[in-house]
Amino acid sequence: MDDELNLRLKPLRERIDAIDAQLIALLNQRASVALEVGEVKKHFNAPVFRPEREQQVIARLQDMSAGPLAGEHISAIWREIMAASRALEQTVRAAYLGPIGTYSEEAMHEYFGQSIEGLPCPSIDEVFRSVEAGAAEFGVVPVENSTEGAVSRTLDLLLQSQLLIGGELALPIHHNLLTASGDLTGVTRVCAHAQALAQCQRWLSTHAPHLERQAVSSNAEAARLAAADPTVAAIAGDRAATHYGLQVAYSLIQDDPHNRTRFLMIGKEPAGVSGNDRTSLIFSVKNEPGEVFRLLEPLARHGVSMTRFESRPARVDKWEYYFYIDVEGHRDDAAVAAALAELEQKAAFVKILGSYPRAR
Length: 360
Prior knowledge:
Keywords: Amino-acid biosynthesis, Aromatic amino acid biosynthesis, Cytoplasm, Isomerase, Lyase, Multifunctional enzyme, Phenylalanine biosynthesis. By secondary structure, this protein is α/β, with parallel strands linked by helices. Helices cover 44% and strands 25% of the residues. The chain contains twelve helices and 15 strands. Strand 1 (93-97), helix 4 and strand 2 (117-121) form a beta-alpha-beta unit. Helix 1 (2-43) crosses helix 3 (71-89), helix 2 (51-64) packs across helix 3 and helix 11 (291-301) packs antiparallel against helix 12 (334-346). The radius of gyration is 24 Å and the shape is globular.
């Protein structure tokens, strides 16, 4: 049987080898052109990473493909090809909530590819500071979770910072219960980020009610603690388990099987129009009846769809709020530009956080 199998596979493998030879030649040819692009960008002091351009490339290739590769396969392949090309042009660094092994790190690689250089930070505040100070070109910050809602600190820092949103990613969150031994023998407490504990509270109450719950700065920090102490279990993902040498005692313990976290990519450069964009902004209004409705009316009149509405206390007076909204389209699109112009005239305060390609 083995002889017959090898006999039938041999010509197919030879065809694959021949195609691979063509692919590597074409990829190197593409990389050479990318280096030329990098030289032109240096001459004009243009940014290496253009998220709208990369999204357009991927969308065009997905439309061209007749299969059997699906759209997500093409996206994954070309993301890495473009990341490798960027790395040839210039080292690009992204700050994220560390340590190594967090979902923020996973989101960074999912968005920028494996060739990005990561800068782990101890807090979301430090991610913003690192980008503002030039230690990293981009930052990766969580902004909302499908189970627990908005990440308040990120919203507050978006208000305070001059950085712009340049991209977004919705990452599926698969929580595992990790221990050094692979079971709960001798384990007395479980550590995780507060949001992860909240996302798994029903499972923990049902399957491990005896474990003390302790919130820590990140799930990766919880994994580090579990690796050092056999009495500690951690809630974290596969990346943390691998990095810290832990075993999965229980997998997929999140209460919501569709649990996702939305991450924002922040930086100093605005993103151009990709054709599939989102614009985020903050505004405040006078504390008078009907003011919010009056302010949002131009969006409906100009046909601009609002996809998110969130409020945060202004902390400057009683019952004053900042409103965070997302709308479909780029601020340079005619309809969006007209609606925003009216909104800016009517609002007490408006800050546009950025227009950027919508999550792939």
